[in-house]
């Protein structure tokens, strides 16, 4: 089978598409049509992720395709359209084998390419807003990195989950158009976002900040919160991991909340199934629109991963594995 694999830890340029043996292990065997690309893929190419497999290894944590075979106890059957999670490696290939509890039926109204862009980002954001962020109806959400994968997911989901206002923070006017299309009610530039958010909320501030960026925006994110607000720490695509002076938390009774979706899923049996059931209902009903990812052919896996590392990606990035 064809697969995108890391041959050396030199960054995305070290990703090669080659013929490799099909995986030979027990589980649900899926003929992969599309595979999602996520920021951990970029980190894995440099050996910078907390999980460090030895090269060569196949990248890819999320897939969409058709079941070839499944154990009798699985919830899916041969021929089913599905999405699934390898969680970290093995997805960017024509065949993937997944544990039965990480494979879910894909609604008929969602394409394979959109489906491959749903799991990592939408499950993370759903968990962030509903579980860790305790989003309440009528609250205001501010989203950093709003034109990226997590950002566009947050823009799509926040209003569906009850937010009355969703403020997107972007770095360029071009990315502002992407954020608006994804569902932002307001768009502000990263430079001066705190003052802009305060003005938009009549000086009160926002209830939730979704932050997959980190870096030097962190302090102003805290300052942009309303009393009782929550800053959701999802990642550090900005590079630097910020620190917090905890006296700031006392002044306005605000929270800094870690969002470790993978860690939560690994320690809470049934969490993935419960979260997917909620998302599937929203997607199948049309209340939540599926993502419209940027699609690369499998042969351009290196470029797709590089677009996340250099922050040129506009929305979710997906590989088309087979037509």
Automatic annotation (TrEMBL):
Keyword Oxidoreductase applies: yes
Occurrences of domain Enoyl reductase (ER) (ranges): 7-319
Top-level taxon of origin: Bacteria
Entry keywords, A to Z: Oxidoreductase
Record-linked Pfam families: ADH_N, ADH_zinc_N
Xref: InterPro entries: ADH-like_C, ADH-like_N, ER, GroES-like_sf, NAD(P)-bd_dom_sf, Zn-ADH-like_protein
Enzyme class: oxidoreductase
Single GO MF annotation: quinone reductase (NADPH) activity
Enzyme Commission number, as recorded: 1.6.5.5
Protein name according to UniProt: Quinone oxidoreductase 1
Gene name of this polypeptide: qorA_1
